[in-house]
Amino acid sequence: DAKTTQPNSMESNEEEPVHLPCNHSTISGTDYIHWYRQLPSQGPEYVIHGLTSNVNNRMASLAIAEDRKSSTLILHRATLRDAAVYYCILRRGYQKVTFGIGTKLQVIP
Amino acid sequence: GAVVSQHPSRVICKSGTSVKIECRSLDFQATTMFWYRQFPKQSLMLMATSNEGSKATYEQGVEKDKFLINHASLTLSTLTVTSAHPEDSSFYICSARVSGGPEAFFGQGTRLTVV
Question: How far apart are CA B115 and CA B100, in angstroms?
Answer without folding.
Answer: 42
